[in-house]
Amino acid sequence: MKILNAKYLKSVTSPDRSLRGKVLEVSFVGRSNVGKSSMINSLAMRKIAKTSSTPGATRLINLYLIEYEHKGARQQAIFSDFPGFGYAKVSKSMQKDWQKMIEGYIERNKEIQKIIWVYDVRREPDRLDEMLLEWFLDRELPFSIALTKTDKESRGFAANKKRLFKQYIKKGEILTFSAKTGEGRKELLEHILKLGDVLKKLNNN
Hints:
Elements: E1 2-12, E2 24-30, H1 36-44, E3 61-70, E4 73-81, H2 92-108, E5 112-120, H3 127-139, E6 143-148, H4 155-166, E7 174-176, H5 185-204
């Protein structure tokens, strides 16, 4: 697999009808300052997503176009980077607006083949995380978990966190990832590419 090109496309608050068609979309969601943008930059092998040390900096859904070669074929995918949630200094009204925007985008967008829940491996789940998990499960949304910042903890610690989430997740995968060391990058890309193969087969039928 080879990344041919990757670029910022646009920022939106609702699904873009012009992008409907045969392009795979993968959405990245998670708490503020969890490393979603760093993950996208690592996967794309270039800095296309803006990173910020200030939690809550992303206010829109940022779309990135990824062009890659896989099994001898040139393919495209959209990575959608969602605003982080759970930042205390953001007003409650803005948090509700973000929640409405995110839920509306995902529930109305049939192009999304997978949601990657980016989760800081060092954190313990709280009520906000439980609510997000309940929403995924209630809506039967296709999601996997990427435990990030694994370079900051031991392998045993990350393995224990994977077992914790496995208690609640019957479908989807739980992967480990570090933008700093590159750990898990290949596995996460392969996980996404499997979705592209499935979509390609469906479109050819």
